[in-house]
Design a protein that fits this description.
The structure is a single chain. This protein is α+β, with helices and mostly antiparallel strands. It folds into two domains: 2-53 and 270-403, no CATH class; 79-258, no CATH class. It has 14 helices and twelve strands. A six-stranded mixed β-barrel has the order 3-4-9-6-8-7. A two-stranded antiparallel ribbon has the order 2-10. The chain is elongated and about 100 Å long. The two termini are 32 Å apart.
């Protein structure tokens, strides 16, 4: 054990002595490890984010959008859902605990005393808080009577409050929503952003009847239907039942595609897996290239080092050092360099992850697993890269090495 510690100490001295070789070796390894660390953290962060979203979305909940999946993909939302569809689903499926219409008004202009912002208006019912587990931090929600009489009342998100009011109390104030005067009743709690970067706090909620009558001027169609099933309900079976009822009501033949799209917790996980997969593919190729280049650089620099240190190796062999001592010294040097490369790479990964989170709002979670993976991979790369030069050094003839 003492002998190994002595060899390790000599390896550390050699790493410090050959500063330029160490620098280039560290650089190649660090870049590859940085990419690898981001991959591990991104995957872990994405899955954590997926389960957080499902908790918020509701494990026994779905939302049905009008228009097919293909139409939503090109941002063309065809209106195909009606209030009659909602009523039919409510009557046909006893496992429904809560059902609510949803209307969207994109890019609505919100005005208050010279302050202007653009937000998304949602027409919803008084069950919104329970439907989305999203509660108020100030004021109250609009009630059934206000919905029935199409009152000009609203609840705003935190972002809208900050943009229009700053530190001023918004409760009871009048704002203009696309020139429609609207009284603020409450403010929603903070919800943050979606994996795609949409600011969930940038919203204005109004009674769906008010949006229908005074903004959309459409009393027939709604954009979406939010459904919350009773706890423990077989969600996948109920989704199929919902699909069949809507297809029958919309007179779709067996060969026709759905003219609606059902978003469920399963769909959310599938979306995040696809999103993560794209990042993993890109960064995986980057890290593989970086680690391969780093390994080649390390191997070549060690081969040069063997040629430069022939006399040192020959003298050590002449005074009693064994082949395995020389082999271990070079391998220890590679391990030291790659461990430090992993530490530097992990630091670069943290910086890169912060930039990625800031630019794309991508969920990143670093953990001990990510760091351990970085260290293990870097050591493996180091040992493999240095093995051939180390064996060459160990097999040198002492007399020829001293003469060399």
């Amino acid at each position: 054990m003492k002998k190994l510690l002595r060899i390790f100490n000599q390896s550390f001295i050699a790493v410090r002595a050959y500063k330029l070789r160490t620098f280039f070796s560290l650089l190649g390894i660090a870049l590859g490890i940085a990419s690898l660390s981001i991959i591990v953290a991104a995957v872990e962060g994405s899955y954590n984010r997926a389960y957080e979203i499902i908790d918020v979305f509701g494990p026994e909940s779905i939302i049905i959008f009008g228009g097919s999946r293909e139409e939503r993909g090109v941002r063309h939302r065809k209106k195909t859902l009606t209030m009659d569809d909602l009523k039919a689903l409510k009557q046909a499926i006893p496992e429904i605990k809560l059902i609510m219409p949803v209307l969207f008004v994109d890019d609505a202009t919100i005005y208050y005393r010279g302050n202007i912002t653009t937000s998304r208006v949602y027409g919803v019912s008084d069950q919104y808080e329970e439907a989305w587990n999203w509660y108020l931090i100030e004021g109250r929600f609009f009630n059934k009577q206000e919905i029935k009489t199409k009152q000009n009342v609203c609840v705003i998100g935190l972002y809208v409050r900050e943009e229009l009011f700053g530190k001023e109390d918004p409760i009871g104030k009048m704002i203009l929503v696309n020139r429609l005067p609207c009284k603020i009743l409450g403010v929603l709690s903070k919800r943050g952003t979606t994996p795609t970067g949409r600011n969930l706090d940038d919203r204005v909620l109004m009674p769906y009847t008010t949006v229908m009558a005074k903004i959309n001027h459409d009393f027939l169609y709604i954009n979406a239907i939010r459904i919350k099933f009773v706890k423990g309900a077989p969600v996948e079976k109920l989704i199929e039942k919902v699909r069949q009822i809507l297809r029958q009501r919309h007179h779709l033949s067996p060969g026709e595609s759905d003219d609606f799209f059902i978003l469920s917790p399963t769909e959310i996980i599938r979306f995040l897996v696809n999103l993560t997969g794209t990042l993993v593919l890109f960064l995986g190729l980057s890290s593989a290239i970086s680690l391969t280049v780093g390994g080649f650089v390390l191997a070549n620099l060690f081969l040069l080092s063997v040629n430069e240190r022939k006399k040192e190796i020959g003298i050590r062999r002449a005074i009693g050092a064994k082949k395995k001592d020389i082999l271990f010294q070079f391998l220890f040097e590679a391990v030291i360099i790659t461990i430090f490369g992993a530490i530097i790479g992990f630091g670069l990964a943290i910086i890169g992850a912060k930039m990625l989170t800031y630019i794309a709002q991508f969920p990143i979670k670093f953990s001990f697993i990510a760091f351990l993976a970085a260290v293990v991979v870097s050591v493996i790369v180091g040992v493999i890269s240095a093995l051939s030069p180390a064996m060459k050094a160990a097999n040198l003839n002492p007399i020829e090495a001293i003469r060399g």
